[in-house]
Design a protein that fits this description.
Distance between the termini: 78 Å
Number of helices: 24
Enzyme class: transferase
Catalytic activity: ATP + protein L-histidine = ADP + protein N-phospho-L-histidine
CATH architecture of the domain at 76-252: 2-Layer Sandwich
Shape: flat
EC number: 2.7.13.3
Largest sheet: 9 strands, antiparallel
CATH superfamily of the domain at 76-252: PAS domain
Family: In the N-terminal section; belongs to the phytochrome family.
Radius of gyration: 45 Å
CATH class of the domain at 76-252: Alpha Beta
Number of strands: 34
InterPro entries: CheY-like_superfamily, HAMP_dom, HATPase_C_sf, HATPase_dom, His_kinase_dom, HisK_dim/P_dom, HisK_dim/P_sf, PAC
């Protein structure tokens, strides 16, 4: 027998390691902490440096923009004032030409200035300010202009459809025509912007018609004294010049800068990327920063869109830190605005790799110093440990001698270390006392043996020692007489044959199982067995034994088993009675479920007629009051259906038959469908219904979307019901679990409603229970929704709870409870629940939920020509389905039962068969099987029944049907059905 205790993972550690390792750990911990703090300080310095560089770059860009744009503004303002003072005559184009020539010569940075009137005439000058303009002019006209050269731009009354470009002499007079472009000035973007403006303003950014480049105009509307519009003064600027300046900033080795407008479109970028998209036909399209080919530009634009949504929210300078693969980007976004409507965002992007070299060098030196310090400490520790452990090893040798019975060798007491000397003296004294104690122990051992014998003889249970190899009792106490009527001697003398003779025949396999079990059992494993043995008087006695390995042979096989046997006959009789009661209860529960299913069918059948007629009635011309009546009928019917579904679900939950049916789906589609369904209720109460989903959640997940949608409809619907005004919000976050591809989704539904007070919150998730009776009377409801939601959440591996004020109901996680003390009391209630989902590697199309609301089209039969057979025994339901189909332009054949349907398919080919299930003469399932197997028809068969359980749907599919819709049927379902039938 082996009774050795379980070895600890920290047992048998040498003393020298005990002395050395703590020193090493302390030094490593201290140095590591210093290294970490140094690293953090370096990171902070890096961020500060990046922000300083970004700020300087933004200031330089702002100064350049101010200079460039103000020159254009001042030139236009001067000309506008000259016109207002009548020193400049709009009808005297020669005077206008001379005036513009003087202005463009006075300001060398002025790119252009011109005037166009309502007749389409135009006069002005432009200047070549970039190599890009030279190349574009040469490509369009073949003329090779020089940098800084001025050109005359003119549209005359003789040719209003063309804009002409002239080389000029020193006086600004035309000397050579080099460009003639078909442009009507009155149709240009800048002219229309000026005409629509009331004062000096900037035009929208657009692609120049005379050159493939992006630009913007400062425009001023010109009116006479009567306020009549005369024309537009304008000056244009190429935005590529700003991009060139950005590319030459050199504020960081690999930093970038770009400018976007409030719509998120690129204005200019240091990467010199073309900020527009050329299309085959029509005007070029502005390039959104989110569509940029530059990865950093796209990353920053996407982050701004995610964080702010509308870029108009950015009114002050902001800073962002974006972590990408192997790099961190420091981003600064600064608004740029002027007095004339310009509203841009200046963005600078600096990667941390531009500054990280010095930090990495410091880290290497820190690691080297840590290593040297560690080696020094280990050396000191080893020397110290050896000095201390040498006397202790001697102590160990003497201890081993005493363990072997050699009591004559005392421990030397001449130790250098005072503590070890005192230990030697104490050890010698202890050895003497131990020797004396052995004699006392032997005496006490005999007394204890007698004591144990008394315990076994008077125990209420049978105690025995068994040889598992031959199944013979080596020992059994006297209790065997009281429980089984046999003496210990009868057990021991009878051997294994005796045990088998009194064991119940049905329990003999247990004997064989136990014999195999003890061949591999561990010392601490307990085997519990319940079996029957025949009493000496012939009665069967139920016993419950607990057995454990008591001893092992030299091959480490179990040689003795220690066990106890307890009489459990009375308990077994009670268990049998309980089992019978359980069967009775299950039968009653099954009968209840069948009753509820039948009631659901019987209620849905007339409801199909009611709601179907309401749908048809709603398509007719009704007064506003009549429309209100129709809506009330439909809402009441939908409410009744919800009650029916809740009762069916609750019945399944009680019977343990509700199962989860996971599949791939898009989480946002589920949440959006819930919001769409409840949108009208929220609008009626002027409630803002919104949702937010964490971007880290995978788009497609694997779970039960139907049950998740049911939970959200219950909770969000309640939130809207109990909220008079304000908002209801849905937030979703996720946490990656330890198992691969497993996530925990956390949902938070918050409202600004009436809240839950007192002890009502503790009853919230109980079935048929609401906050209290008064709430039920005021707001309605069965009290099943939250109870069903709680069961569904638990089936999906999650938990649900609610917080209202400082009150909590449900079962929140312990981590969440710790956050309660730090939260402020707010109005309304917040429901939380978690569920477990996964990401699936199965490449199947995720389920969609937002089917667009189709308009009823009486020409749908022309778009989707189908021959339809309606199989329905109920006359009202026949009329409802026929009327719905007629509204879509279809004329369906009608069969009153399955037999007529089979006969109809024999004589006619159909594209779509709408089949009821419960019908006289032949049901829908039998008819579907015959149509598929005997008639080999490929028509699409759709089950149309009042049975509403998933089991019914599976039965329909197994019978050969293609799909399943439950009554009451919906016009949208019918339209979806015919539009997807081929």
């Amino acid at each position: 027998m082996s009774n050795s205790p379980k070895r600890s993972l920290l047992s048998n550690i040498p003393l020298r390691w005990v002395l050395v390792v703590p020193f090493v750990l302390q030094i490593v911990g201290a140095v590591g902490l210093v290294s970490y703090l140094s690293y953090r300080s370096g990171q902070t310095a890096l961020e500060n440096m990046a922000h300083q560089v970004s700020n300087q770059a933004s200031s330089r860009v702002r100064d350049r923009l101010n200079i460039s744009l103000q020159n254009q503004n001042q030139a236009i303002l001067l000309s506008q004032r000259a016109i207002q003072k009548r020193t400049l005559n709009l009808k005297d184009f020669e005077q206008m030409q001379n005036h513009f020539w003087q202005q463009i010569n006075l300001s060398l940075s002025l790119s252009s200035i011109y005037f166009a009137n309502e007749n389409g005439e135009m006069i002005g000058y432009g200047r070549v300010l970039s190599q890009e303009a030279i190349e574009q002019t040469k490509q369009l006209t073949g003329e090779n202009l020089t940098l800084g050269e001025s050109v005359l731009i003119e549209t005359t009354s003789q040719d209003l459809a063309h804009r002409k470009y002239y080389l000029v002499d020193d006086q600004g007079k035309a000397k050579q025509l080099y460009g003639n472009l078909p442009i009507d000035n009155r149709t240009t973007i800048w002219y229309r912007a000026g005409k629509a403006a009331q004062q000096l303003t900037w035009s929208p950014i657009y692609v120049f018609k005379d050159a493939p480049t992006l630009g913007i105009n400062i425009v001023a509307p010109i009116k006479d004294e009567a306020g009549n519009f005369q024309g537009v003064l304008s000056s244009s600027i190429r935005l590529t010049a700003i991009g060139t300046f950005l590319s030459q900033l050199n504020f960081s080795p690999s930093g970038q800068a770009f400018i976007i407008d409030r719509a998120g479109d690129l204005v200019a970028t240091s990467t010199l990327e073309t900020p527009y998209i050329q299309v085959k036909q029509g005007e070029p399209l502005r390039l959104s920063a989110s569509q940029s080919k530059d990865i950093r530009t796209k990353l920053v634009a996407d982050r701004l869109q995610q964080q702010y949504g509308n870029l108009n929210q950015i009114q002050t300078k902001i800073r962002l830190k974006i972590v990408t693969e192997g790099n961190t980007l420091f981003v600064e976004v600064a608004p740029y605005q002027d007095d004339f409507g310009l509203d841009w965002l200046l963005v600078t992007v600096i990667p941390d790799s531009d500054f990280i070299t010095e930090i990495q060098t410091n880290a290497k030196w820190t690691i080297l110093l840590c290593g040297l310090t560690l080696l020094a400490i280990i050396a000191i520790g080893v020397i110290t440990a050896r000095w201390i452990t040498r006397p202790i090893l001697k102590l160990n040798q003497v201890s081993e001698a005493i363990a072997k019975g050699d009591w004559q060798e005392p421990l030397p007491e001449d130790q250098t270390i005072a503590e070890l000397k005192a230990l030697s003296v104490s050890f010698n004294l202890m050895a003497t006392q131990v020797h004396q104690s052995f004699d006392r122990v032997e005496t006490e051992l005999l007394e204890n043996k007698h004591f144990l014998q008394q315990i076994t003889d008077h125990s209420a249970q049978i105690l025995y020692i068994l040889d598992p190899n031959v199944w013979v009792n080596l020992y059994i106490n006297r209790q065997s007489i009281d429980i089984l009527g046999y003496t210990p001697e009868e057990f021991q003398q009878g051997g294994s044959q005796f045990l088998q003779s009194i064991l119940h025949p049905d329990d003999i396999p247990l004997l064989l199982r136990n014999m195999d079990y003890w061949q591999t059992a561990k010392d601490d494993e307990v085997l519990t067995t319940e079996y029957r043995m025949r009493h000496k008087n012939g009665d069967w006695v139920w016993l419950r034994s607990r057995e454990v390995v008591f001893a092992r042979n030299e091959h480490h096989q179990a040689s003795k088993i220690l066990g106890t046997a307890q009489d459990i006959s009375n308990r077994k009789q009670i268990e049998i009675a309980l089992a019978e009661a359980k069967e009775t209860a299950e039968a009653a529960n099954k009968a209840k479920s069948e009753f509820l299913a039948n009631m659901s069918h019987e209620l849905r059948t007339p409801m199909n007629g009611v709601l179907g007629m309401v749908q048809i009635l709603s398509t007719t011309k009704l007064t506003e009051q009549q429309q209100s009546f129709v809506k009330t009928i439909r809402d009441s019917g939908d409410a009744l259906l919800t009650v029916i579904n809740d009762i069916l679900d609750f019945s399944k939950i009680e019977s343990g038959m509700l199962e989860i049916e996971p599949s791939n789906f898009v989480l946002e589609d589920v949440i959006r469908s819930v919001c769409t369904l409840l949108h009208s209720q929220a609008i009626d109460k002027q409630i803002d219904l919104q949702y937010a989903i964490s971007p880290v959640i995978p788009t497609t997940i694997f779970g039960d979307h139907t049950r998740l949608r049911q939970i959200l409809l219950n909770i969000v619907g309640n939130a809207i019901k109990f909220t008079q005004y304000g908002q209801v919000s849905i937030s979703v976050n996720s946490r990656l679990l330890s198992q691969p591809n497993q996530y925990e989704l956390s949902f938070e539904i918050a409202d600004t409603g009436i809240g839950i007070t007192g002890d009502r919150i503790d009853k919230l998730f109980q079935p048929f229970t609401q906050a209290d009776a008064s709430i039920s009377r005021k707001y309605g409801g069965t009290g099943l929704g939250l109870s069903i939601s709680k069961s569904l959440v638990e089936l999906m591996g999650g938990t649900i709870w609610v917080k209202s004020g400082n009150q909590i109901g449900g079962n929140p996680p312990s981590i969440w409870r710790l956050q309660l003390n730090n939260s402020s009391v707010s109005h309304g209630s917040t429901f939380y629940f978690t569920i477990g989902v996964s990401t699936s590697s199965v490449t199947e199309q995720p389920l969609g939920f937002l089917l667009e609301q189709m308009m009823i089209d009486n020409k749908m039969a022309e778009k989707f020509p189908l021959r339809i057979l309606l199989v329905e025994d109920n006359k009202v339901n026949q009329m409802v389905a026929n009327l719905m189909l007629e509204q879509l332009g279809y004329c369906a054949d009608v069969a009153n039962n399955g037999l007529e349907a089979v006969q109809a398919v024999q004589s006619q080919s159909y594209d779509l068969i709408m089949m009821d299930l419960q019908m006289p003469e032949m049901d829908g399932l039998t008819a579907a099987r015959l149509i598929r197997s005997k008639l080999m028809s490929q028509a699409r068969i759709i089950a149309m029944t009042a049975d509403a359980t998933p089991e019914d749907r599976q039965i329909c599919l197994e019978a050969g049907m293609d799909d399943y819709i439950s009554k009451p049927i919906d016009m949208q379902e019918i339209m979806q059905l015919v539009s997807t039938t081929k």
